[in-house]
Amino acid sequence: MSAHEIKLEVCVDSIKSAFAAEEGGASRIELCAALQEGGLTPTVGTLKTLKELPFTLPIYCMLRPRRGTDFVYSEEELQAILTDMDLLRTHGADGFVFGALNTDRTIDIDKCRRIMERSYGLPVTFHRAFDLTDQKCMHENVQMLKELGFKRVLSSGFRQSAAEGADVLAQLIAKHHRDIVVMPGAGIKVSNLEEILTFSRCLEFHASAMDTAGEEYSAPTTTRMECDVTMGKQDIDPYYGTNVNVVRKMVAIANAMSCR
């Protein structure tokens, strides 16, 4: 299939998950807060702590100040994003993940340009806001993102999962792989990874590699207190983090595919 290494980026929202990704053989992490909300901007404290510990993977930080699938940001929200970006860069961020749209679901060129200017040369990934844009314009939009300076586009191929959108991802990768990395993400599991890699011919992919994504069950990574008080709706569900065994399995599959 490929003579090149196929790299795994793991999205994490805790220090424990970051180390599980590293131990399992991931190539990079996307550091977020609140993955159950789709991933929000991480705290500076989390990034700074990882950078001060013996942690070796590149860390790309999510820039997303709130939940919501609109990705339409006010000027005040953009100022908050830019401030977070400055702080995260100062404390060692190796790259960023961002996406902004207009109300008509076109890419917000102005806000993207301002983010790229503030990145000071660090690589930036355009995230799955791409999947909310018009599929008929997908090639033009990828070209536009490349011209703006983005190094990667994270996409599920305009579907709920990368497995469902694999045909579209294959088209995007075939056309643009020399200019920009199109990185499949969303719903990638050990059970469907080989099919996605084979069909898309991607060189990088993105997964959370959580306990629930693997074949082996493991206990939640936090203890649920038995009481009548919760801090939010999501506290009703157990919190699962990145599973080192799931990462290992994914990396093993990717390595085997790299040699084909």
Count of strand segments: 8
Q: What share of the residues does DSSP label as strand, in percent?
A: 5-15%
**Number of helical stretches of at least 4 residues:** 8
Q: H/E series, N to C?
A: EHEHEHEHEHEHEHEH
Helix residue percentage: 25-40%
Uncertain ranges: none
Distance between the termini: 5 Å
Note the overall shape: globular
Find the structural class using helix and strand composition. alpha/beta
**Average predicted confidence as pLDDT:** 91
The major β-sheet equals: 8 strands, parallel
Strand order of the largest sheet: 7-6-5-4-3-2-1-8
**What is Rg?**
18 Å
Plain-language structure description:
- The chain has eight helices and eight strands, in the order E-H-E-H-E-H-E-H-E-H-E-H-E-H-E-H.
- The protein is of the alpha/beta class and 260 residues long.
- It has an eight-stranded parallel sheet with strand order 7-6-5-4-3-2-1-8.
- Helix 3 (75-90) links the parallel strand 3 (59-62) and strand 4 (95-98).
- Helix 1 packs parallel to helix 8 (244-258) and helix 7 runs parallel beside helix 8.
- It is globular, with a radius of gyration of 18 Å.
